[in-house]
């Protein structure tokens, strides 16, 4: 069964369009859906029937869907999350800092079930074309990881397993900040050497963040070498096109495009929101938003100087400093000490 959120397409309910055409023209045009797939817009009934839940939603929808699902979930269900990003509630007046919550943490808090996390360098179109793809399974349970591997692995999709769930998830979120930074480098025509340095410094900051903010967990630097880390980052930042990604493409490329536009002179008078609106009112780049939330946390802990790349991306996207300040802000990076 497949839960489809209540929304419209061509003045019809999307769920009805999918049922009638055996295709999702809004989010996966041109990809046929098997007759074996039962499409439903009732999350509670889909949840109640499921022995395995594959959860792949933008973080802004995570809470609303989990609240519907939690009362109907089997205690023995295998919950697999493909959602990338951070659930970051707005601070209240008494909060000293913003809480940053991983999607897996939110799933466990709401449902009481510890999910398996899957992240990696793959797109829907690539999978549909049977391109060779890799992904990383993050799970503290080998039994659960083996079951996910059995269910999802094919001759063209290879899955590796690590117990380092935290780094697998954080790579999926924080690499979007690096994609924006790489776009800024492109927009300023700073060259391949600079982009290479940006990638390394960004990976350094991701590693430091994992170790510092999640010190009680067994986070490992080697996880950055998995598909969820450097592989997925390369897939995005090596893109040379300025074309908007289409549905089923790598949407992380949108962060790269935003970075380019934030640094190009013709867009100097536009805010981040205005640049995003120029594409489509429904499009929101996750990189600038993640940088904003991470910066709020780091600022409250007086740690911004330890993460100059994360800080620079936020300040540039907020138009607090010009894009040309990227390199000066990295001159005394902690990685160079």
Can you describe this structure in just a few lines?
This protein has helices at about 15-20, 45-50, 60-70, 105-110, 125-130, 140-150, 165-185, 190-215, 225-235, 255-265, 270-280, 285-300, 310-315, 325-330, and strands at about 1-5, 10, 10-15, 25, 30, 40, 50-55, 80, 85, 100, 115-120, 135-140, 155-160. The chain has about 325 residues and is an alpha/beta fold.
Task: Outline the secondary-structure elements.
Layout: E1 2-3, E2 8-9, E3 12-13, H1 14-21, E4 23-24, E5 28-32, E6 39-40, H2 43-49, E7 52-55, H3 59-69, E8 78-81, E9 86-87, E10 101-102, H4 103-111, E11 116-119, H5 124-128, E12 133-138, H6 142-152, E13 157-162, H7 165-187, H8 191-213, H9 227-237, H10 253-263, H11 272-279, H12 286-300, H13 308-317, H14 326-330
Parallel strand pairs: 1-6, 7-8, 8-11, 12-13
Antiparallel strand pairs: 2-3, 4-5, 9-10, 11-12
Q: If strands are numbered along the chain, what order do they take across the biggest sheet?
A: 7-8-11-12-13
User: What is the mean pLDDT?
Assistant: 89
What's the total number of strands? 13
Low-confidence stretches: 90-98
Strand content: 5-15%
The CATH topology of the domain at 167-336 is: N-(1-d-carboxylethyl)-l-norvaline Dehydrogenase, domain 2
> What value does the Rg take, in angstroms?
20 Å
Family: Belongs to the NAD-dependent glycerol-3-phosphate dehydrogenase family.
EC number: 1.1.1.8
Keywords: NAD, Oxidoreductase
Catalytic activity: sn-glycerol 3-phosphate + NAD(+) = dihydroxyacetone phosphate + NADH + H(+)
